[in-house]
TrEMBL record:
<feature type="transmembrane region" description="Helical">
    <location>
        <begin position="47"/>
        <end position="69"/>
    </location>
</feature>
<feature type="transmembrane region" description="Helical">
    <location>
        <begin position="9"/>
        <end position="27"/>
    </location>
</feature>
<keyword id="KW-0472">Membrane</keyword>
<keyword id="KW-1133">Transmembrane helix</keyword>
<keyword id="KW-0812">Transmembrane</keyword>
<protein>
    <recommendedName>
        <fullName>Integral membrane protein</fullName>
    </recommendedName>
</protein>
Length: 132
């Protein structure tokens, strides 16, 4: 593996790990806010904490591809289509394994480590123009 490919892999691992942790942190904060809103107004019915829950869901779904793309662009890497699309799909599948934060801290970090390593390998692939 050449040094530029190794560097791109390291950038992919770092950006994937940072995106996973940042998104999970935002989602956990929104879920905690929703729980606190429901506890503060138990008679509020189904609407108590609804706004916070929706914000958490939007962040959970949309923040990873945005952070993957922005992180790689800030590190000077282009052509990250596969990392962004497949990383987003992998993130959605990963979150079916951790519903409502029921996974332990060790399981969560293991999932994030696997996500980061696969993100590094996805970062290695770059589209090339067809030869004529």
């Amino acid at each position: 593996m050449s040094s530029s490919r190794l560097c791109r892999w390291i950038k992919g691992v770092g950006v994937s790990a940072a995106a996973a942790h940042a998104t999970y942190w935002v989602w956990q904060a929104a879920e905690q806010g929703a729980g606190e809103a429901q506890q503060a107004n138990p008679d509020g019915g189904i609407g108590a904490g609804f706004f916070e829950g929706v914000l958490g869901l939007i962040a959970l779904v949309t923040l990873v591809p945005l952070l993957l793309w922005a992180g790689m662009r800030l590190l000077g890497e282009r052509d990250n289509h596969l990392l962004v699309t497949m990383g987003w799909a992998m993130w959605l599948v990963l979150n079916t394994q951790m519903p409502d934060g029921s996974a332990s801290r060790l399981e969560t970090e293991s999932f994030f480590a696997a996500f980061a390593v696969v993100g590094g390998f996805l970062a290695l692939f770059r589209p090339t123009a067809p030869e004529e």
